[in-house]
Amino acid sequence: MRRDFDTSPGGTPRLELLGPGVAVGEPAPMPLPLEWAAEPLSAALTLASRARALIVDLRSDRPRDPDTVAFV
């Protein structure tokens, strides 16, 4: 699992800026422990912090590590 996270974009969240002030975020497809997920999540949330509205797309979400969920 760690090797897959290090070598593929599957371990990073997706964030898209739709226009002025609107961001759409989707969690990483892999359920990651916080020690691996904190850095990419922080980067995505920093980008999203400039938006006035944030849409979080959870349609394809899977069970998550409780510490990672609390971090977000």
Average predicted confidence as pLDDT: 78
Strand content: 15-25%
Total tally of structural domains: 1
Biggest β-sheet: strands ordered side by side in the sheet: 1-2-3
Shape: globular
Low-confidence stretches: none
**Tally of helical segments:** 3
Structural class: alpha+beta
CA radius of gyration is 12 Å
Q: In percent, how helical is the residue content?
A: 25-40%
Number of strands: 3
Order of helices and strands: HEEHEH
Largest sheet features: 3 strands, mixed
Distance between the termini: 21 Å
SSE blueprint and pairings:
Elements: H1 2-7, E1 14-19, E2 22-26, H2 34-48, E3 53-56, H3 66-71
Parallel strand pairs: 2-3
Antiparallel strand pairs: 1-2
Protein architecture, described:
There is one protein chain. By secondary structure, this protein is of the alpha+beta class. The protein has one domain (2-71). Helices cover 38% and strands 21% of the residues. It contains 3 helices and 3 strands. A 3-stranded mixed sheet has the order 1-2-3, covered by helices on one side. The model has no long low-confidence stretch (mean pLDDT 78).
